[in-house]
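Entry:
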Amino acid sequence: MKLLMTRWWVLVGLVLLGVNASAHESRPAYLALKEIDPQNWQVQWKVPVRGDQKLSIHPQFSRCELSQRPQDTVFSDALVQRWQMACDEQGIAGLRVEIIGLRQTLTDTLVRIEYTDGTVTTRLLRPSKPDFMVEGERSSGDVAKEYTILGIEHILIGIDHLLFVLALLLIVRGVGLLIKTITAFTLAHSVTLGLAALGILNVPGPPVEASIALSIVFLANELVKQNQGQEGLTSRMPWVVALTFGLLHGLGFAGALAEIGLPRGDIPLALLMFNVGVELGQLIFVAAALIVIALLKRLGNQWPHWLVHVPAYSIGTIAAYWCFDRITGFVG
C-alpha cells in the first residue's frame, strides 16, 4: 500500500515540476466599456503578456470610432490600454463587438459593459465564438449560465487554489474525513465570497493573494511532517484548517468576481451561480485527482523512496515563490 501511494505522489510531483510558477497565468483577456453618454464610451482593454510577448488580439467595434488616442500601461503580466470611442446615434444597442485574432488562441475574453444607471452586463467570448451583438437586458437563464461558467473557469485556472486543495487531498486519510474537509473549505469560502462581493467585507486584494500563497506553504510543511512520520495540525484536524483558510480563499474568489462585476438587476442570482460554478470546478478537480489515485494503484512498478517527498517540496517551492513575488508586488 505504501508503494502504491508513493507512485501517486511521484506522479503529482512530476506534474507540479512542470507547472509554471505563476498563478492565474491562463486568465482571459478583459474588455470593459463604460458609458459616458449614449454615444460616448470609455474603453479599457487588458491583454495578458509573458515577458516581451503579448497575445496578438484586439477588439473591433462596428459603428464606433476612436475619439481619444489609446494610452498604454504596462504591468508585469498584462498590457492595459485605455481610450474613448464615439458611436452613432444608436449608441451601442445592436453594436457588434469582435476580438480579432481570438480564433488563433486558446484564451477567452471577458467583456463587461457598464451603463450610467449602474446596470452591468457581461459576456464571455471564446476562440470558437469571438464576437457578439450588444443586446438589451438579458434573461435570468442567460445570467445563471454565464456566471456558472465563469465560476468553473476561475477555479480551474486558479492554480494556487487547486494546489491548496491538492495538498489537502495528500494529507487527509479516509473518505469520511475528506468529505468533511472539502465541505468545510466550501462553506468557508462561500461565506467570505458573498460578504466581499456584496461590499459588506472589504479587504485589499494584494495582501489576500500573498496570504493565500502562505496558506499553501503551511500545508506543504504539514505534508513534509506527515511524510516524516509526524502528526501535524492538519493531520489531526484537517476540517479546522480547511475552514480557517477557506475564509481567506473566498476573498481571493471575490477579487476575481469584482473584476467581472455583477449585473445590477440579478446580483443574488449571479453571485449564487458564480459560487456554484466554483464548487463544480472544485469537484471536477477532486474527482480527477481521485481517479488518478485509483488508476495508479493498479500499477506495479517500484519507485525510489525519496520520491515520496517530491510533491510536498514542489508545492512548497512554488507557493513560496508566489508569496515573495506577491509581497514585493505591493510592498515595493
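The chain has nine helices and eleven strands.
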